Amino acid sequence: GEDVEQSLFLSVREGDSSVINCTYTDSSSTYLYWYKQEPGAGLQLLTYIFSNMDMKQDQRLTVLLNKKDKHLSLRIADTQTGDSAIYFCAERHDRGSTLGRLYFGRGTQLTVWP
Amino acid sequence: DVKVTQSSRYLVKRTGEKVFLECVQDMDHENMFWYRQDPGLGLRLIYFSYDVKMKEKGDIPEGYSVSREKKERFSLILESASTNQTSMYLCASSLVGGLGEQYFGPGTRLTVT
Question: In chain B, what percentage of residues exceed pLDDT 90?
Answer without folding.
Answer: 86
